[in-house]
Amino acid sequence: MADGPVDVRGREATPVSVAAGGRAATGAHGAAGPRQSRGPRSWPVHAALVPACLLLVVFFGLPIVRLLQTSFSSWYGIGDMTWLGTGNYTATLGDEAFWSSLGRSAVLGLGCAVGLTVIATVLAALISAGIRGASVYRVIFFLPAIAPPAAVGVFWALSFQPRTGVVNAVLGRVGLGNTHAWLADPGTALFAVMAVAIWTGVGFAFLVLLGAMEDVPVSVYEAGALDGAGAVRRFFSLTLPLIRPVLSMVVLLEVIWSFNAFTLVWALTTGGPGDATVILPVLVYKEAFQMGNFGPAAAASVLGGVLLLAAAAAGQWLGSRQTEDA
Amino acid sequence: MSTTPAAAERVVEIAGTTPRPGRRRRPVRRGSVLAQVGAVAWSVLCVVPFVLIVLLAFKSNADIYSKPLSVVGVDWNPANFADAWAGPPGGQGFASFLVNSFVVAVVALVVALAVGSATAYFATIAAPRVGRWVIRAHLVATVMPIIMLLIPYYSGFSALGLLSNPAALGVVYAALCLPTATLILHSFYLGFPPELRDAAAVDGLGPIATYWRIVLPLSRGPIVAVGMINGFFIWGETQVAIVLLQDPESRTIPVGLLGFQGQFSTNTGGIFAGVAIATIPVVVLYLVFHRSISKGIALGGVFR
């Protein structure tokens, strides 16, 4: 019923726009031409956008409001929230555990991002150079990224066991000793987590960087070769600068994801030994869902989230500024 | 001369004539040997853990510890899978995890793909200002750290009595997948030939009918790719599920698997069988569909 007039207008409008625009104009303004004529009958188009907006508001917008409310309140998981003011924030900011978990998150985030971006860049360079078997390597390198993080974590947790685990069995075979308790030693636990996070994370960075490298026209390298630039020189002065926007985006995403690598940590160590691997999401989880202190946990996640987004924005700004300079 | 294997290969590539990688036999060079060593080493690191997962899942508890790397003279114990399927005594096993994961995945994928593809398409033909804002909202949602959403999700679910409800978790996942789905499909629909739309309009189809009868059937490939990427996220997601699924009966595969660690303390074979059940299906799926998955990632797909 309501569709009637809309369709009629549509039928009228489109031939008009085609007639007015003509062939050449349609070629030049392909998208703009027909779009202008859609104004009057555009309501079903815009109505179709409503469900997505609703989902975003309900599952991203309202939760942030609710999180802020919780962070200013006292709440223990059941019953009503009572308004507290800034108490949770002052308590969190004065809490040694918050700062050390933030530090561990930062170490994990930066360490993973740098480590896996370097590995992924080298691998992508090999494949885009077309080494023999490239199409097979391309499939294999993404494999670790496909496995569920919980399964990856459980597998490596068992594999890092002293004497009995596979990692130590292999190390023992090559004469490096098989008794080290990688995850039970507070000195190595975070780095064992980092190694596993790098193992799972390389695949994604590899695929994205490979895509960027394959977008670089071959003629650029040919020109470089004609100018007498050596192969190494071409990688550093042509490939790297040309993929820098993608590279900085990959680093940024990886920092954010590793900063939040709750699942791997929970599966590998549940934050232990002691609190050697308690990164911020683990702290928030324990505080809220094991201790029932939702107020301080909410304050910690607000602070962590804001710091993370600020760091991401700063990184993005720095990245784009450098690109303009170059 | 060259020290970087990649760069050395490129010399060969430029000197040669065919731009297609890995097709021709080339003279062996120091650089390409180094490149192969590096690529093979990382491949071994990528593949061996999966081989071990399968291998260890079939071994008896004693042999998992005494000969983890052996393949001969091993006490094979396929009963591990029966243990993982039934779960630890008094607990839940994969028989129940699989059903829950399936419910969660179906709800999440149907909602995310239906809403995501419609949003992605209609954003390209909506008024430019509206389309831009909708896409921008999705971009903002992708950078939202999950850590900021956990506590509100819990309090909301608790207030509505939806804790431990897999279908409700599916709706949350649909929302978490929506930004990825919309953004990937949007970049696909931006390249959709406008002539097809105009032809449909000439034939008297309204925008909704055009979408349903012309656009959707032509975008089956990208939608499958997006569904796959979202599916891997849903299959593995743990952080939200561990908070929202409180009852052991409602747990999905990853949450249940984490529970195994504590409950199956003496049955390592059962845990490895669980790891294998959680891992091998997605690996097989990936090996079959790797082309469209890689394409989806290149178009901007992410796993959270």
Can you walk through the features of this model?
The complex is a heterodimer of chains A (326) and B (304). Helices cover 74% and strands 1% of the residues of chain A. Chain A is mostly helical and 326 residues long. In chain A, strands 1-2 form a two-stranded antiparallel sheet. The longest helix of chain A has 33 residues, at 96-128. Chain A starts with a helix and ends with a helix. In chain A, 44% of the residues are buried. Mean pLDDT of chain A is 80; it is low at 1-40. Chain B has two domains: 5-57; 94-298, MetI-like fold. Helix content of chain B is 73%, strand content 0%. Chain B contains 14 helices and no strands. In chain B, α5 (94-125) runs antiparallel to α6 (128-142). The two termini of chain B are 42 Å apart. Classes of the chains: A mainly alpha (326), B mainly alpha (304). At the A-B interface, α1, α3, α4, α6 and α7 of A face α1, α2, α5, α6 and α7 of B.
